[in-house]
Amino acid sequence: MTADTTAPAAGPAFGRSAFLGCGSMNEAVRAGLLAAGTPAGNVGATVRRPERAQELRGRYPGLTVLAEQEEPEANSKAAAGASVAVLGDKPAGITALCRSIAPALGRETVVVSVAAAVTIATMQAALPEGQPLVRTMPNTPLKVGRGAVGVSGGPGTTDAQVQAAAAVFAGAGTVVLVPEEQLDAVSAVSGSGPAYAFYLAEAMAAAGVELGLDADLSMTLARETVAGAGLMLAQERADPAALRRAVTSPNGTTERAIAAFDAAGLPGIIAAGARAAAARAAEISRELG
């Protein structure tokens, strides 16, 4: 099965969305959904602390937010009647969260996980038989509306249900539909990928200091260069190889730098890192399973 990169329209295809736990990832997805025009009254959320709930209600009038410290059954109450329930707990807490909301779920409620490495089979074992399930692999640029999200539907989950789950993310980034067995690879490329770009910026800044630049100046140059290059890559049909060639004049300074990267085996180093990330994701899945 190949990836389907057709992006769904932003906003769920039906009903109400519930975000169970508003950590940074769920917060980014929910913010994107609201920014795309979904009425706040069609979105619910749960948080741990009452003051956090009050903050979100003030920021998004009409948003229903329940605090677990005030209502121990907050997650079940939010999930009841929802068309899509997005699980925002850490990987180690997803199974317990599934068990806690299982009695409140409707038969057609699509349960969506944003937690890395928690397999569909692991979640199925903690949910009612036949519960529609979607596993996703989002990344942190969702926070700025430039995320990339891999989406996989579970057995028995209909295309319409997968699309409804995928549409929840469309307001905050690009959505690709992939088979579950490819999600570890998605994690290695886009899930961990922002850290690779940040690592590059760190290394560029350090190189500038080694060449005699002031540390703050070098960091500013590295940060803005990586951010600007990212915006160029975000243009429609942008090709990184073509963009690289456009900067690389024959026998120039950039060509010499690229040659040094190739001689050091940088492409192979990046590939090795991605393999290591994918292998670790598989290990975590086995540990949690």
From TrEMBL:
Belongs to the pyrroline-5-carboxylate reductase family. The keyword Endoplasmic reticulum does not apply. Residues 180-283 form the Pyrroline-5-carboxylate reductase dimerisation domain. Pfam families: F420_oxidored, P5CR_dimer. This is Pyrroline-5-carboxylate reductase. Its main location: cytoplasm. Residues 18-116 form the Pyrroline-5-carboxylate reductase catalytic N-terminal domain. The keyword Protease does not apply. Catalyzes the reduction of 1-pyrroline-5-carboxylate (PCA) to L-proline. It catalyses: L-proline + NAD(+) = (S)-1-pyrroline-5-carboxylate + NADH + 2 H(+); L-proline + NADP(+) = (S)-1-pyrroline-5-carboxylate + NADPH + 2 H(+). InterPro entries: 6-PGluconate_DH-like_C_sf, NAD(P)-bd_dom_sf, P5C_Rdtase_cat_N, P5CR-like_CS, P5CR_dimer, Pyrroline-COOH_reductase. Pathway: Amino-acid biosynthesis; L-proline biosynthesis; L-proline from L-glutamate 5-semialdehyde: step 1/1. The gene is proC.
